[in-house]
Specification:
mainly alpha; 14 helices; globular; two-stranded antiparallel ribbon
Length: 289
């Protein structure tokens, strides 16, 4: 768990995935389990952060409240914890995680200039911002899995439909339930000029392009960044001010992900911890012989 934020690689919240008295939100080895247990999530996380920055309200929240500059891995590990806990945790762990995120979001508020130049107030609980974050996340994870992952049980629409459960828990009133619905809603925000680039977006892109990682991780990360950019449609890349590399970065990312997959095999994985809970529950439900 190198992105977990724990120097030993296995923080307590990962170990808690083996605890609890129910099966959690999502079916074992279903669509959400398959996508979020996959190594393409390493690219998906970068892609999601790039897309989320295009909404000026979401960008203002990151600029005003996020500690991504001082502690980029800590910021990323917080997102990883949220995704993994909701996907693989028991209902008790899910509720605890929602409480943790909710307490932080309750204080996130401020002002930003919209596409017309008008000043608007924002909070992390605004419906439009919550919707966009969910859309960007869902699109990033399903796209990365489609490019670098294997089959998804029920198909990609099944993933979108399952992950809509997480959207509702975070305050999305009517989350999308199909890939086509995700793309239609994203494109609507693009065509009505809700999304835009600018200096703050440029700053985030520069930072994400050169996240301070050392040694061989630096080259691997740069390849994953360029691969994330390569999967973003041109109309969004224009706002981000990025271009698709002429190098075969999608293929190169496949190699990097394969190497990363071997490295992650050394410690306990989130879905393995969740399986421990499920097997315990199965044993408890089995009638005595």
């Amino acid at each position: 768990m190198p992105l977990s934020g724990d120097p030993d690689g296995t923080p307590p919240w990962v170990l808690r995935l083996a605890q609890g008295d129910d099966r959690g939100l999502f079916a074992e080895d279903g669509a959400a389990w398959t996508v979020h247990a996959g190594i393409p999530t390493l690219v998906a996380g970068i892609r999601a952060l790039l897309l989320q920055a295009l909404h000026p309200g979401a960008m203002a929240g990151v600029h005003d409240w996020s500690r991504y500059r001082e502690d980029p891995l800590g910021r990323l590990s917080g997102t990883v914890r949220w995704v993994i806990s909701l996907t693989f945790g028991s209902t008790e762990q899910v509720q605890a995680e929602l409480g943790r995120v909710g307490r932080f979001h309750a204080s996130v508020r401020g002002e930003y200039a919209d596409a017309t130049g008008s000043t608007r107030a924002y909070s992390a609980e605004d419906a439009e911002l919550v919707d966009w974050v969910h859309l960007a996340f869902t699109d990033a994870f399903l796209t990365a899995h489609e490019v670098w992952g294997g089959p998804v049980p029920g198909g990609l629409d099944a993933y979108v439909d399952e992950w809509a459960t997480a959207g509702r828990l975070m305050g999305v009133a009517e989350p999308p339930t199909s890939v086509a619905d995700v793309h239609e809603r994203m494109d609507l925000l693009l065509t009505n000029d809700t999304l835009r680039g600018g200096e703050q977006v440029d700053d985030v892109v520069r930072f994400l392009r050169r996240v301070p990682v050392e040694g061989p991780l630096r080259l691997g990360y740069r390849i994953l960044f360029e691969a994330a950019v390569a999967t973003i449609p041109r109309r969004y890349r224009r706002l981000l001010g990025v271009r698709r590399s002429w190098l075969p970065v999608v293929t190169a990312a496949r190699i990097v992900l394969r190497v990363a997959q071997r490295g992650l095999g050394a410690g306990p994985r989130a879905h393995d911890m969740a399986r421990q809970r499920l097997r315990r529950l199965d044993a408890e439900d089995s009638p005595p012989e």
